[in-house]
């Protein structure tokens, strides 16, 4: 017969084995080897070629933000082993990343790399750093997303070989993003009115958030120079707020804006219901929980995982509607377990579709507005959304946020974060 | 709500007598069944509450019991020392039969409701055995190769029996099949597998995030012969249609906070079942199937599965793990009994706890 110890352990197994604990409590549990976020900051997001950061190059933007990270984290810069910079457009990204890390006051021992998967680059940078920590490659790292669309304009797809342009699916990557938005609108019947309503809500939420001062929790000011386009005079300025949020925007006022892409039906996308072209950067400090506790670092949140999904490039906008269920099924949660969804508003078409398709509670989606209201600096967005989501979870005293974005060339990425602040 | 304290013995199972509407039996074990004696109580519901008529104390823990279907005074017990004992309430102290073939703890015994001269047992030793009361040795041994927490004959057939095991399978045996290498095993349903897509070539629904975990209990529906329910460590009750095992669970009932130790379908209603869990609650569930159905349902006409069952009410009087629940067959529907590690037997009406 079995010994009392064997009987006891068989019952103990019934209480503790995998499956015995709910997926949510597993995700909320605090384990020493969790990857945690100890600092999350972003610069203001300002309009490309018009806003306060229009003359700030990517390296200057990075140096400013990384200097703030170094100072505000109160972390010994010698402990930072790697910095991963999510960036889409800058030529010579790798030179810029490593140089900016050094110029921001980190020692030569701090390495740097770049991550580029279009609009998900910022989240990819977080995942890269987190994975390195999980694998034991590094102990402490910084994930950054940064884009200067003023100084590095998006020129679309390069010349591609015949094998691609004649391939039925690969050739879709020649389509500009605007066209993919119209494809989503036409294929899924998203009307112009739905576009404008979605966009107006983004503006209204962002206006409320800005007036209530919610963004102050996320933003570190940038000291930089601006050149007056008329006089050529260069002024020192402090940029400390998002400048894309047009107050008093309504669906009616957006309805007057003319279509941006009359050449592609249904031509429902306009300058008012698509994301703005913007400059900005965001950064997060990541480390193991045990290390954070050792160093006395404040633990803001736990990284719960991330995933990527692919789909037809011609409707790349609906990526989140595939990536979010994939992520939730991986961690064993339902949409009802999630307190905030921070979904990038590349276009109102995909935003409307994803919210409808996933049946999300609208009050949980982008509670501070999104890229339509204050901009979408491509490489920055993935990291920016996490900064925003964590701040909003803190404000609402909630726990779990999912962030997701559609990715050009037909992908969707999603990540899950658990607030502990 | 009536209460009886099984002092010194932590309850492990409770069953109503199939012959008398006021009689029930409780199996209990000292020290939570880890070490020490077992005791089987014969109790009667009287105007003065629950009164013990008789008890039998055994050397090792008792984990389950079953009333004889042919003799109104006889009760089977499943013991930690691997033995199965048949007690007669008219006699004192000692069993009238003692079968000792299992090599480890016997976790369940169940009497055949159709062929009433048979019963089965299941054990930690990875076997299910079929017995007849008047033979000293088992009739058949059915290997499962995995700790088997629960075995049960179908209430609709004399020859079909099922069991659930710690490897997360439902196994079905049909004793009419010829003796062969398969040992009468006719069906194996993986409890935690994703359903197979009905369209060939298409990938199925992506597997849910539920790794296999131990199944602790199961029960056959009393009205729908092809439906059985399982539950266990993953806190989830699932119903399966044995005619369409590849479809996966028909209904999923989620809500318990810890492992579910015992489930029992209502003898009165085809869509109601009762569960007892380590979370110290008993809960009544509706599997959302149409009420009043007797016989097989056309599963092709059902909507997409699985559906979510609905919790109808819960009883939270127990202060320790609930280990046994049973419905009363007599009188009005709704009366049931529950036992737990808090040394308590409660007899109560499910309708009183429904919201």
Automatic annotation (TrEMBL), chain A:
<feature type="active site" description="Acyl-thioester intermediate">
    <location>
        <position position="119"/>
    </location>
</feature>
<comment type="similarity">
    <text>Belongs to the thiolase-like superfamily. Thiolase family.</text>
</comment>
<dbReference type="InterPro" id="IPR020617">
    <property type="entry name" value="Thiolase_C"/>
</dbReference>
<dbReference type="InterPro" id="IPR050215">
    <property type="entry name" value="Thiolase-like_sf_Thiolase"/>
</dbReference>
<feature type="active site" description="Proton acceptor">
    <location>
        <position position="406"/>
    </location>
</feature>
<comment type="pathway">
    <text>Lipid metabolism; fatty acid metabolism.</text>
</comment>
<dbReference type="Pfam" id="PF02803">
    <property type="entry name" value="Thiolase_C"/>
</dbReference>
<dbReference type="Pfam" id="PF00108">
    <property type="entry name" value="Thiolase_N"/>
</dbReference>
<keyword id="KW-0808">Transferase</keyword>
<protein>
    <recommendedName>
        <fullName>acetyl-CoA C-acyltransferase</fullName>
        <ecNumber>2.3.1.16</ecNumber>
    </recommendedName>
</protein>
<dbReference type="GO" id="GO:0005777">
    <property type="term" value="C:peroxisome"/>
</dbReference>
<dbReference type="InterPro" id="IPR002155">
    <property type="entry name" value="Thiolase"/>
</dbReference>
<dbReference type="GO" id="GO:0003988">
    <property type="term" value="F:acetyl-CoA C-acyltransferase activity"/>
</dbReference>
<dbReference type="GO" id="GO:0010124">
    <property type="term" value="P:phenylacetate catabolic process"/>
</dbReference>
<dbReference type="InterPro" id="IPR020616">
    <property type="entry name" value="Thiolase_N"/>
</dbReference>
<feature type="active site" description="Proton acceptor">
    <location>
        <position position="376"/>
    </location>
</feature>
<feature type="domain" description="Thiolase C-terminal">
    <location>
        <begin position="299"/>
        <end position="417"/>
    </location>
</feature>
<dbReference type="InterPro" id="IPR020613">
    <property type="entry name" value="Thiolase_CS"/>
</dbReference>
<dbReference type="GO" id="GO:0006635">
    <property type="term" value="P:fatty acid beta-oxidation"/>
</dbReference>
<feature type="domain" description="Thiolase N-terminal">
    <location>
        <begin position="35"/>
        <end position="290"/>
    </location>
</feature>
<dbReference type="InterPro" id="IPR020610">
    <property type="entry name" value="Thiolase_AS"/>
</dbReference>
<dbReference type="InterPro" id="IPR016039">
    <property type="entry name" value="Thiolase-like"/>
</dbReference>
UniProtKB/TrEMBL annotation, chain B:
<keyword id="KW-0653">Protein transport</keyword>
<dbReference type="GO" id="GO:0005829">
    <property type="term" value="C:cytosol"/>
</dbReference>
<keyword id="KW-0675">Receptor</keyword>
<dbReference type="InterPro" id="IPR019775">
    <property type="entry name" value="WD40_repeat_CS"/>
</dbReference>
<dbReference type="InterPro" id="IPR015943">
    <property type="entry name" value="WD40/YVTN_repeat-like_dom_sf"/>
</dbReference>
<protein>
    <recommendedName>
        <fullName>Peroxin-7</fullName>
    </recommendedName>
</protein>
<dbReference type="Pfam" id="PF00400">
    <property type="entry name" value="WD40"/>
</dbReference>
<dbReference type="GO" id="GO:0016560">
    <property type="term" value="P:protein import into peroxisome matrix, docking"/>
</dbReference>
<dbReference type="InterPro" id="IPR044536">
    <property type="entry name" value="PEX7"/>
</dbReference>
<keyword id="KW-0963">Cytoplasm</keyword>
<dbReference type="GO" id="GO:0062137">
    <property type="term" value="C:cargo receptor complex"/>
</dbReference>
<keyword id="KW-0853">WD repeat</keyword>
<dbReference type="InterPro" id="IPR036322">
    <property type="entry name" value="WD40_repeat_dom_sf"/>
</dbReference>
<feature type="repeat" description="WD">
    <location>
        <begin position="99"/>
        <end position="131"/>
    </location>
</feature>
<keyword id="KW-0677">Repeat</keyword>
<dbReference type="GO" id="GO:0005782">
    <property type="term" value="C:peroxisomal matrix"/>
</dbReference>
<keyword id="KW-0576">Peroxisome</keyword>
<dbReference type="GO" id="GO:0005778">
    <property type="term" value="C:peroxisomal membrane"/>
</dbReference>
<dbReference type="InterPro" id="IPR001680">
    <property type="entry name" value="WD40_rpt"/>
</dbReference>
<keyword id="KW-0813">Transport</keyword>
<feature type="repeat" description="WD">
    <location>
        <begin position="253"/>
        <end position="286"/>
    </location>
</feature>
<comment type="similarity">
    <text>Belongs to the WD repeat peroxin-7 family.</text>
</comment>
